[in-house]
Every structure is written in structure tokens, then in C-alpha cells.
Amino acid sequence: MHATHAHDAPAAAPISFDEFLAVDIRVGTVVAAEPYPEARKPALKLVIDFGPMIGHKKSSAQITEHYQPDTLLGRQVAAVVNFPPRQIGKFVSEVLTLGFADEAGAVVLFKPDHPVPNGSRLF
Questions:
Q1: Distance between CA 80 and CA 57 in Å, rounded?
Q2: 42 in Cβ contact with 62 (< 8 Å)
Q3: How far apart are CA 55 and CA 76, in angstroms?
Q4: Within-domain flag for 99
Q5: Which domain CATH number covers 48?
Q6: Over 90: is that where the pLDDT of 7 sits?
Q7: 83, 52 in Cβ contact below 8 A?
Q8: pTM of the predicted model as reported, rounded to 2 decimal places
Q9: Is beta strand 76-80 parallel, antiparallel or unpaired with respect to 25-35?
Q10: How far, in whole angstroms, is CA 86 from its chain's centroid?
């Protein structure tokens, strides 16, 4: 039996450009990161600075395979900033930090290949 992984899944159903624009994806800089041992799945608690308009937001991210808290400080990441907050145990995750699955299914974070201002929107 072959398991489907994120890298070999079929493309999602077509959407309109307006539907794409409804998803607000911004870049921010990680300003705090710590382990989240209470989470059911291994995770890190992040605080990300999205600039003066959006400010600092918290995110619980299942990224422990490739990242340690101290290696994330100062790193730019991308996140969906307009989902409703999610309660993850005792922690409220305010944004969804974005990444791609590697061959084993572990998350590899998405980041711009040149620094951009915090709060820049993906288009």
C-alpha cells in the first residue's frame, strides 16, 4: 500500500483569484522561539514580528525535525495571518507558519531568498 505524501498529492481544485487574495500571507521575523513539550505532536512556540500594522503574533509550529529554537531567531518566515486563532493545548496560535514537507514528511520552512520588510504580503 502506497501512502500519499504532500509532495505527490494531486493539485487542489481550481479557485478564483479573489479566493487566493482572501488568504493573507505575510512575511515576518522570528523574535522568540521555545520548545512546546506539552503539545501532542512535537512543536515549537514562535513569536513572529509582522511589522507595525500586524505586530507580533504567536504560532505553534510542528518544525522540530529541522529546527531548534535558537536557530530560528532573526529568521524570516511566511505565515497566514487572517485565520482565526487556534487553541493548541494551553497556547493560542494566532498565525499559520508555512512550510513544505521533505521526503520524510518533516516540515521545511518557507522564506524569501532575499530579506524583505516585515509585513510584506505574498502576491
A1: 11
A2: yes
A3: 14
A4: yes
A5: 2.40.50.140
A6: no
A7: no
A8: 0.90
A9: antiparallel
A10: 13
